[in-house]
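ASSEMBLY PREDICTION REQUEST
Request ID: AP-0331
Submitted by: J.K., bench scientist
Number of chains: four
Total residues: 472
Priority: normal
Notes: Please return the full assembly, not individual chains.
Input sequences:
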Amino acid sequence: MSEGPPAGPKGWAEIAEEARRRIYVRDWAPGQVIPSEEALAVEFGVARATVNRALRALAEEGWVERRRRAGTRVAERPVRRATFSIPLIRDEVEQLGRGYRYAMQSCEEVDTPGEIATRLAMQGEPRVLRITALHRGDGWAYAWEERWINPGVVPEARGVDWRIESPNEWLLAQVPYTEVAVSVGAEAASEEVAGAFLCEPGTPLLSLERTTWSGQWGVTFVRLSYAPGHRMWSRM
Amino acid sequence: MSEGPPAGPKGWAEIAEEARRRIYVRDWAPGQVIPSEEALAVEFGVARATVNRALRALAEEGWVERRRRAGTRVAERPVRRATFSIPLIRDEVEQLGRGYRYAMQSCEEVDTPGEIATRLAMQGEPRVLRITALHRGDGWAYAWEERWINPGVVPEARGVDWRIESPNEWLLAQVPYTEVAVSVGAEAASEEVAGAFLCEPGTPLLSLERTTWSGQWGVTFVRLSYAPGHRMWSRM
DNA sequence: TAGTGGTCTAGACCACCAG
DNA sequence: TGGTGGTCTAGACCACTAT
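STATUS: Completed
Returned structure:
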């Protein structure tokens, strides 16, 4: 009973899948060097570029580490990466099937606090725009926004009516940005924020801070405080 | 005064950089379709595969959206992705230059709480291992771990001395996993955890929850509570 | 149906670095 | 210094989908 040609992996995705399987069953053990691209290309009957594509994907996923001359080895400590997508809050809310509403809470131009000056690397611009706003989904408070804008970089921001414009969406449309730094942490709800969320002051809230740069210029810093119990999810 | 040939972008990385620049200066405006790979290949004097590599990178970064036939267009709403690396806590602590220490706090086999049974999709295995532990850096509490292990998938876990073995490191070495779900949120410190962190009960803590799967089997669920003020950082 | 991106090939040269 | 991965090329076929 002869069998047809073995249905081996065909494209780079299938080859990557086969490689994951071999790692999974310890066929390729942690720390071990796996065969070279050339050897695998021969084994699978594909071009080396195809194997390269597959192994590059595995490396990005953290399964293997690759170095010239040293070859490709299975990661001992797979440093997993969790990727969270950070859409506009409007999109986030609407994707939940809820009606989105934005409401400015306050808007003022103030002397730049030291912390903000540092974060935005501000020089010579002693004043900064501070806006607070509430994002609602179906009437319920979804996230509280505390926004700082550097008018030295975006002078037009001074003329905007923030009761109508949502800072994030306005800035996105106006200012190109090159770099973004994000962090997440836990904070206690202030009196003001607790009022919006109808919770006790001191309630733990997930906070997301984001600093946005346009070249070397700090454009804006925002702290988003999500409703109590909110979690950010990632699937790897 | 004739000039030499213009020093255009050479490799895929430089072409990607040039494309980012064009998006940045609104040369390619949001929502607009950019030239085809073929056209760009001609413009830059490279093979189409090289342009493809560059644009694929931009798509992964969220700058452009690509669809066959429809072409490549600049994203209207760049859905930014924040990637956090999640190393072993040991590595995390040691990278800060601190001395790492692990200390089990409790270990018991208990009737599976409904929440855990759901998370691990447990069937027929009414008992589960629960371990709590403290991770220290230079003697200071760094993170509190509450770990649940499904002995139906990892029966050997019952025989392990968790005063010595750190669950995460042991599991990593023992059980191959295929899928991981991660979430972050904010929690109030319990009495027990507050004691470890020398803070008031109710203090907001960043919590990271992770469920790990091996095929269709839920292996383990862990909740890490980080010290007050801890933040996770990502640079995009 | 035609045009776009997705993928693959066979070959080539190069950068890097472990031995 | 040789073997490995990183990259590029010129060409080809295919999958998808806007028109």
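REVIEWER COMMENTS: Chain B touches chain A through 49 residues (CB under 8 Å).
SIGN-OFF: pending second reviewer
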